[in-house]
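Duplicate of #3305? Posting structure anyway:
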């Protein structure tokens, strides 16, 4: 997997999202996981334009 920037405002990468998700034992639901990742990385707290991309990354990571 290639790392890439998802949130330009906060400089959050795919690997940052993956690392944040690895802090949790289980994946409950996409929105809850998004909120947890957002608290850790601060993604999607600037312009909000990456919201969909963050959700896509979380979905991809959850399906591994």
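Output from current build:
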């Amino acid at each position: 997997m290639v790392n890439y920037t998802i949130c330009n405002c906060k400089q959050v990468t795919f690997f940052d999202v993956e690392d944040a998700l690895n802090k949790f034992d289980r994946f409950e639901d996409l929105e809850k996981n998004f909120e947890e990742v957002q608290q850790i990385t601060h993604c999607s707290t600037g312009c909000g334009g990456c919201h969909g991309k963050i959700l896509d990354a979380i979905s991809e990571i959850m399906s591994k």
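Confirmed duplicate; merging threads. The CA atoms of residues 12 and 21 lie 13 Å apart. The chain has a mean pLDDT of 93.
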